[in-house]
Amino acid sequence: MNVYADNAATTAVSDTALAAMLPCFQEIYGNPSSLHSPGQRAAERLAAARETFARRLGGDPREITFTSGGSEADNQALRSAAALGARKGKKHIISTEFEHHAILHTLEALEKAGYEVTLLDIPPDGVVTAEQVKDALRPDTCLVSVMFANNEIGTIQPIPEIGRVCREAGVLFHTDAVQAAGHLPIDVQAMDIDLLSLSAHKFHGPKGVGVLYARKGIPLVNVIYGGAQERGKRAGTENIPGICGAAAAFEEACANLEKNAAYLEPLRDKLIAGLTAIPHTVLNGDPKRRLPGNVNVCFEGIEGESLLLLLDGKGIAASSGSACTSGSLDPSHVLLALGRPHEVAHGSLRLSLCEYNTPEEIDYILAEVPGIVSYLREMSPVWDELEQGKRPHLI
Amino acid sequence: MALYSDKVMDHFQNPRNVGKMEDADGVGEVGNAKCGDIMRMYIKVDPATQVITDVKFNTFGCGSAIASSSMATEMIKGKSIHEALKLSNKAVAEALDGLPAHKMHCSVLAEEAVRAAVKDYYDRTGQAYDPAELACDGHCESCGHEH
What we know:
heterodimer, A: alpha/beta, Aspartate Aminotransferase, domain 2, Aspartate Aminotransferase, domain 1, three-stranded antiparallel beta sheet, 15 helices, B: alpha+beta, Sufe protein. Chain: A, about 40% helix, disordered C terminus
């Protein structure tokens, strides 16, 4: 059996999204900047896609900028808010330890440019609090950026509460909603969100399309200079097939959001229950305040990459926060921020489900994982020492 | 996954000489769980001929760490301990039809595990040895142990 359980990495393009894309290759192939009819037909599709995102997010079409993906949207959101802050002499930014690298590395670049950054600690349940944000606010804070839901452990952050704290303090609030968009309800008005990033390929849209929502009155700074596309804020001929696919996928995902969550949560909880029944296994992140399809556990005494390879051999596609899978020497910064020791973080497994996964696939995963974990533990000198009491169990 | 050669995948999926050896004559352990790699190698040595008659390993680590351990055990089994000490990480990597650049340290770990097991054998049997022959060459950046 082949089971794709890495939907937080990327998803299959849905039939609806593909159907929206296909005419844009050979029929509606005009450049939306062109005056002629073929160009204007493409411009109409672009406008309709923009309208879809605006409506589903609770904003205005003029507040929607299409980008090449979530990373670009994150970069542009942070740089724009930082530039606006600097104009008012405010150069302090608040974010969290477990943001995506598109945020963390942009913040590092801003630090080098003279900004001060406060990264909030991550509580053991993987959910930061609005109080933490409030306590970190300073008179010179220009931006708070907190992800909507974490990409590795799936924990959902208290976005409306944080939004309120920021709004009351007059500080811009950005949220990286790459994992949340299309999976959790989002309303930029009700949640006091000023800037939001999302990525189409996380909800069955195509790769290479992102959206930056920026509230009216927040001037965007260019990451890419050139033509006048996207009101001059993002140069380059628009990716019409991708944008149309993204809008169709987002419409479909939002329309089915509650249904998908109701379907996925029991599957997720079954996986969590089954996997944590394996001795010395711990769930990462709050069991309920997490994305409907996210499961992330650490198995003590084994290393994640070998686990992934063996799962792949069984047809199961998953991911891990092990250092060996990242190409760096350190395991996932998210798991470390959560307080997991290095040796435990190396043994992590993330399974991320979508509505295409079946109950039979969940049973298959639960049938295969325990044997693979035991096999690797049998081979592991670390497990040997744990079992003999020469090394204390950490989980 | 095309990350690894077929040889690496074979040794990872069907590791040779895996397991514990209760009556080993030498045991070497290198690496650090914090860094995500530990190799433990057990050798059985014929005292008369100084030939390694049996080898076993236990490894905590990624696919290439397990494959490197497996390959190293095959390469030293039946060899004299002097020959075993000549095993280089390069030879292990080559025997596996290559390793990705960021995984070369796994082959270094395998070389060091062999040396550590031989050193333990020398220590246990009270044999004098040339420290230079067993010196850790210190080019393992990942294992975290003191050089």
